[in-house]
Inverse folding.
């Protein structure tokens, strides 16, 4: 082959390392001949599908020959009524990752600066690099965002600041006082993207709902997802809420029909299923308490988390432990790509899944 097709790609994409998702259970079962694999790697909802969402999906099957509503009118209206903002402030995406990419594509030029923390969600770096923008990575504070360092990193080239609250993969969180003090210092021409993928799980009294800050901070964009607490990871639907002008700009780069018809129906339905959400949060709270107690009892250090996952410090290379757990039919998440080679992230599952995971972890460490 005479043509170097890699060299034809944009500079940012040439050097991009693609996102690596959690290992699918069926892949591990196929590789090792296992059955009953437990996946606690991708922060999914262990309850499975909401009954209301399932009914909505079944009701929509007869319309699959038709394109979905490209504007997502009904879901936008449902979100607006549920959370108290205007429907035209919403941008729908094929998961919240899609919305993060839309923001980068719409607002970043080559050479613009993007600020995010060293242990922040990896997609921030991917969308920054793909647009040939410049990443400004600030040091963390106790595995979370150091907002003072982030504020000090702002220059006249800064265009976007990404903040995950709670943060993934560390589970740390920011309170209202410190977050608002930071937002007060950010110039209005710098967009602050507040990624709230795990907000439904947080019970801390000082935690702030980012949607409540939108009127005070017109440069704020709040992103959320239906993939976690709402149990629709396989359908890929997320959204952002922002001021109307930002939403208008994002709609210009959003692909038509980027959210499929079943996802639109399921998301609208699950918003009304309050019992499902309450159960999801209760299962997560109980599971988190189990891991905290068990990890401490067995001498493991971990990062306190308010999400639906907990990250464990093994004090050694985590990959052999990860591989040993795979052999036992338990999938967790190595986070070496976050410069955390000694850590494993464990999603909170059902009680029996959590017990099996702890047994596998203890056995793997004992054998290491």
């Amino acid at each position: 082959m005479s043509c170097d097709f890699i060299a034809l790609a944009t500079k940012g994409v040439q050097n991009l390392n693609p996102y690596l998702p959690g290992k699918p259970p069926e892949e591990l079962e196929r590789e090792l001949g296992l059955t009953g694999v437990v996946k606690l790697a991708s922060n999914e909802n262990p309850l499975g599908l909401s009954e209301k969402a399932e009914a909505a999906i079944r009701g929509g099957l007869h319309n699959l020959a038709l394109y979905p509503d490209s504007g997502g009118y009904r879901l936008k209206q449902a979100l607006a009524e549920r959370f108290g903002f205007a429907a035209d402030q919403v941008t729908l995406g094929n998961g919240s990752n899609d919305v993060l990419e839309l923001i980068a594509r719409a607002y970043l030029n080559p050479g613009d600066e993007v600020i995010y923390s060293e242990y922040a969600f990896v997609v921030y770096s991917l969308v920054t690099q793909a647009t040939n923008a410049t990443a400004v990575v600030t040091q963390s504070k106790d595995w979370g965002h150091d907002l003072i360092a982030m504020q000090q990193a702002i220059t006249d080239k800064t265009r976007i600041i990404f903040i995950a609250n709670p943060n993934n993969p560390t589970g740390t969180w920011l309170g209202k006082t410190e977050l608002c003090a930071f937002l007060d210092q950010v110039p209005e021409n710098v967009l602050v993207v507040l990624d709230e993928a795990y907000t439904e799980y947080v019970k801390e009294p000082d935690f702030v709902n980012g949607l409540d800050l939108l009127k005070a901070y017109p440069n704020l964009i709040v992103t959320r997802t239906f993939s976690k607490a709402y149990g629709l990871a396989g359908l890929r639907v997320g959204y952002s809420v922002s001021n109307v002008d930002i939403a208008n700009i994002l709609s210009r780069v959003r692909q038509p029909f980027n959210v499929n018809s079943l996802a639109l129906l399921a998301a609208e339905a699950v918003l009304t299923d309050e019992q499902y959400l309450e159960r999801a949060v209760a299962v997560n709270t109980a599971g988190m308490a189990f891991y905290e107690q068990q990890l401490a009892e067995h001498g493991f250090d971990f990062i306190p988390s308010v999400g639906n996952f907990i990250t464990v410090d093994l004090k050694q290379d985590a990959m052999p432990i990860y591989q040993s757990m795979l052999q036992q039919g338990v999938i967790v998440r190595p986070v070496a790509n976050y410069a955390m080679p000694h850590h494993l992230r464990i999603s909170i599952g059902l009680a029996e899944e959590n017990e099996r995971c702890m047994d596998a972890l203890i056995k793997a460490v004992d054998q290491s």
